[in-house]
Amino acid sequence: MKSWTRADIQAMQQRYRAMFINSLSGFKSANLVGTTDANGNENLCIVSSVFHIGADPALMGMITRPQSVRRDSVANIKATGYYTLNQVNTDIVVAAHQTSARYEADISEFTETGLTAHYEPGFVAPFVAESQLRIGLKLVETKLLEINQTELIIGEIMLVQSKESALEPDGSIDIEQLNSVAISGLDRYHSTQKITRLSYAKPHSQPEELLFDTPDQTSQE
Amino acid sequence: MKSWTRADIQAMQQRYRAMFINSLSGFKSANLVGTTDANGNENLCIVSSVFHIGADPALMGMITRPQSVRRDSVANIKATGYYTLNQVNTDIVVAAHQTSARYEADISEFTETGLTAHYEPGFVAPFVAESQLRIGLKLVETKLLEINQTELIIGEIMLVQSKESALEPDGSIDIEQLNSVAISGLDRYHSTQKITRLSYAKPHSQPEELLFDTPDQTSQE
Q: Carries keyword Protein transport (chains A, B) (predicted)?
């Protein structure tokens, strides 16, 4: 095993350090943030920093880039109060990655990347038609992280759309069936293969593999 | 596509809703949090809520459970100011999952699960010897999320240990080479297979696949 101290990290060249540190947290979710500005101009941007905050109320968080750079999505979320998260699947990896290019604010990343905006009645922010798991959120809170001028954006889930076949009897969605991808580092995209699903852990007993999870797996047993 | 509104989500039975909402954010990182209390009692706990906050300073965040439940790891982090994150790999999935059982505070999850505590000179918190990517952090800030009484814990990276063979020339670590796993929902564990690595996106050009990423891949080209 090789070790790096805090001083070693501080001595790294900026881009090298960004590559290194972004690798450390493990696999990340891949979502497209869909927004519009007050004039209806669409914006779409890939993010790897979306995470679960709570189930009741149903809350999701994401960390923005620092305030020192232009962030159309954040400005739009604050202006309209609404945004969508659209899980990236294997079919749209390249288009999703391309949304991270620095287009001008009045350019729609939908148009530029060929992804399709899908609107739901009464919801101002655009969903991505090609995504198999789409979430509509209402902004509930932003928290500035003073330490590096990034922001934590917290949204409450107002609408979920998913392929019904991926919904399990216990309420979980098997996102592998949706061909959802994982991100590592700044630019690696991964498909997944399920190793196991484990029962709720209790002291003095070993977790058991849960087998009711996919129809084809059940039939193998 | 099936749709669920906010009202549909609120009407779900609690456990069903937890399963459902926890599925939505996409793939998550799998890390073991290593801590000790002021008396040196070890604690180890799997978390799926670790995420990147920034590279300079090098910061990682994680979301805790609500303050209403016993949280030994959080108490230990606040008491000692230090903790470790240890990436979970395919060899230790079951032991890692088992750390989520509600052991008493004076029981070491290392002992109970067979994982091995590894100490570095001058660092109070235990690392997991079986992990191939270990991070030592210093607590820099906690932020209470009033909306659901969870906390955001922010740590600065003081030490990183990883298998050197997974380090790429550009500073990134290919965590797939470490057999790191991804989590989805509350209890699914996944291995990964790289789809592609894409160049920095720019307007008016398509991202290109980066090929220097693994020795065996380079030799295939």
A: no
